[in-house]
Each structure stands twice: as structure tokens, then as C-alpha cells.
Specification:
The protein is built from 8 helices and 17 strands. It is α+β, with helices and mostly antiparallel strands and 382 residues long.
């Protein structure tokens, strides 16, 4: 047992046998000189289960992208789901995760290290009074589907190199950086390749299909940045998991385009997959025929409550309409509009979350969404 683990166990024993204030002011900052976390991959997705102080059962879905973390935590005893964001301290490999409750903000902080690739342990600190308890969680994802991330990046430095020999006063007007395209792609691995090859193909094609120009592969799409003949362009396409449960996979694809001289573009595109049948899921696959009018009416009520009157937005002839950019989440169907789709740049990318209970009569009883809900909640009945 190392020093760090010893302090954690001391906190737990103190909580039960002495006073709840014993660990009130412990944080992992006090332990930096005695711990070293394991080196972590740049990207990963883990679903982890464990407890806080051996009492509060928690499940955390955690995605790491470089030094940033995000995901969600479910507190079983409280029946409450909170959102998680955080960061990695490179010097110590310490993980800091902030859990937030809607309309309240940060309610707790997890500080710890990965003592192995599959185990994260440390202290959970209550935001209101710095009261701390030990926590420990372990990765529970099996070998059926291993989630990995692949990174593809190409640069174009032709214009930078061309401009670097200009006089200083002229060079000021040009970027001194290389243009680039960077794609971070989700991939599945399994001992049964037939289960994953089709899904990987669909995920990969989702990045470059539907473009004005036809591309035959992801490599060709990423390499297209090398044909660019204008000034600086930075293009990041980064995928992350929204839902991975009950044979449903929902992916969010962030597309961040940075252009010299003007503001950039930031959009979020969703992809939904049926892992049982290795197919893409569209709205028509999960809802009954002629669902659109009722779905729009429900979405309109939620949109107005969140964003105000429709006359502040650019809907066609003033009629509210949801787009087809949706994700299946644990709580409902999440729709996000693209920049400029219904508003100005400053209005961003509005979102509408439609709870499943609001559309229970629209869900196709034979579709993958109903199967997802039945496995999530056996009492769900159409």
C-alpha cells in the first residue's frame, strides 16, 4: 500500500469510527510529492463503476481528449445524473473532474489518479464546504467492444513558407502557421471482427460523405487540405460518445473551422448506430409514420420555453421545425441546429432535448429506440 492509498483508507475509517470532519480538508494537492499517476493515452472512453466512501454507488462515463475530460456521472442512491467536465494535470497526471447539476452549477469535485489503466481513485470534495470522501471506480467495459480513438492529421505549409521571405511589414498580413486538418475518429475493436468492421466503416464514412466533392476514403479527405491555395485554414473534426448502451451508439462530431480574417465556424453533427444490425439510425427508423407534425409541436414548446419567441429566429415562414440532426440520449432525443441554420452567428447552435415521455406515443414499438428503452427500463411499455 502506498502513501496515497494509506491516506484514503485513513479517511474511510475515520468517517465510520471517528468524526466526519477528519477528512474535511484533505485534497490531492497535499499528496503530489508522494504519488505518480499512470501515463494515459491521449484519447479514451471508459465506463466506470465504484463508490464514494464505500456508500454512494456511482457510474461514470468518461471521455478523455488530450488533457480534457467530459462525460456524466450517475449517483445510484440519489437516482441523479450529473454532467462532468475536467482536466489532466500533466506534471502529476492528476485527474480533476467537476460534476455539475443543472441550474445549480458545480456541486462536487473528483481529484485522483489512475492507479492502473482500469482504476481511478482519489477524493471526492463537496463544493459547498470542502468536505471530502475517498472514491474508487473501475472500468467495467468488457472485451466485446473496445473503444479506441484514431487521429489523422495533415498540414499544408506552402503559403506560410511563401510568405516568410516577405518584408516584415508585409508579412504582418499573413498567417505564420500551417493550414491543417485534424480528424479524431472513434473505432471499435473486438475479438469478433464481424461485429465491428461494418460499424467502423459507417463511422469513417460519416466524416467525409455528403461533401460537395466526392471522396473515396478518409485519407483522401484529410489529404485534401494539401490542395488548399488560400491563406490559413484550421479544421478539427473530433468525435465523442454521447450514448453507448443497449446496442445503441450515438456519436457527437464537433467540426471546428478556423479561417484567417473572419470568425470561425463551430458545429455539432450527430450520428446514431444500431449495433445489433450494424446500421445507421434515422428518425424514420425509430418513430411511427406521420410523426413530424406532432414532434415539431412538442419541440416548439420546449424551444420557446428555452429561447423565447420564434420571431427572434429565422424559421421558414415563421413555422418552427426540427432538423434531422439528432442524438439518442438516455433522457430523450437531442436536436442541435447548425450555425446560421435558424439564427445569426451570435445565436450559436441552439439545442432542443425532447424527453421520451413527451413522445411515448410516437415511438415505433418495433424500432431500435423502443428496444433501447425497454432494456433501459423494463417497465417501459408502448
Amino acid at each position: 500500500m502506498n502513501v496515497y492509498q494509506g491516506i484514503l483508507w485513513f479517511c474511510i475509517l475515520s468517517y465510520f469510527f471517528f468524526t466526519s470532519d477528519t477528512c474535511k480538508y484533505f485534497t490531492t494537492d497535499m499528496l503530489h510529492s508522494s504519488i505518480e499517476g499512470k501515463e494515459m493515452p491521449k484519447y479514451f472512453y471508459k465506463k466506470m463503476e465504484g463508490t464514494i466512501a464505500g456508500l454512494d454507488s456511482i457510474t461514470i462515463e468518461l471521455t478523455k481528449q488530450d488533457t480534457l475530460f467530459f462525460g456524466k456521472v450517475y449517483h445510484k442512491e440519489q437516482d441523479k445524473q450529473l454532467w462532468i467536465e475536467g482536466q489532466l494535470r500533466r506534471r502529476t497526471n492528476e485527474v480533476i473532474l467537476y460534476e455539475s447539476e443543472e441550474n445549480i452549477g458545480i456541486v462536487g469535485v473528483y481529484k485522483g489518479v489512475f492507479s492502473s489503466n482500469e482504476k481511478l481513485e482519489g477524493l471526492w470534495i463537496r463544493e459547498s464546504d470542502n468536505y471530502a470522501k475517498a472514491f474508487s471506480i473501475n472500468n467495467i467495459l468488457g472485451d466485446d467492444f473496445k473503444i479506441q480513438f484514431s487521429e489523422f492529421k495533415k498540414e499544408n505549409c506552402k503559403l506560410r513558407d511563401l510568405h516568410k521571405n516577405l518584408p516584415k511589414e508585409e508579412r504582418f498580413w499573413y498567417s505564420d502557421s500551417c493550414s491543417y486538418m485534424n480528424v479524431v475518429l472513434i473505432r471499435f475493436d473486438s475479438y469478433d471482427k464481424s461485429k465491428t468492421s461494418k460499424i467502423n466503416e459507417l463511422i469513417e464514412k460519416s466524416v467525409y460523405s455528403g461533401k460537395r466533392k466526392t471522396y473515396n476514403s478518409l485519407e483522401e479527405f484529410v489529404s485534401s487540405i494539401q490542395d488548399l491555395d488560400r491563406d490559413y485554414l484550421g479544421y478539427d473534426i473530433i468525435q465523442r460518445i454521447i450514448t453507448f448502451e443497449n446496442e445503441i451508439l450515438a456519436i457527437e462530431e464537433m467540426r471546428d473551422e478556423k479561417v484567417d480574417g473572419v470568425h470561425g465556424y463551430l458545429n455539432f453533427k450527430f450520428h446514431n448506430f444500431d449495433l445489433r444490425n450494424n446500421t445507421i439510425i434515422e428518425l424514420d427508423h425509430i418513430l411511427i409514420p406521420k410523426y413530424r407534425q406532432q414532434l415539431n409541436r412538442i419541440g416548439e414548446q420546449i424551444f420557446i420555453q428555452k429561447y423565447g419567441p420564434l420571431d427572434e429566429w429565422k424559421f421558414d415562414q415563421g413555422n418552427f421545425e426540427l432538423n434531422n440532426n439528432f442524438a439518442i440520449t438516455e433522457r430523450g432525443l437531442l436536436f442541435i441546429y447548425y450555425e446560421y441554420e435558424i439564427g445569426t452567428y451570435s445565436q450559436g447552435t441552439p439545442s432542443v432535448l425532447i424527453p421520451f415521455e413527451e413522445i411515448s406515443d410516437l415511438i415505433d414499438p418495433n424500432g431500435p429506440l423502443n428496444r433501447f428503452l425497454q432494456n433501459q427500463n423494463p417497465s417501459h411499455d408502448q
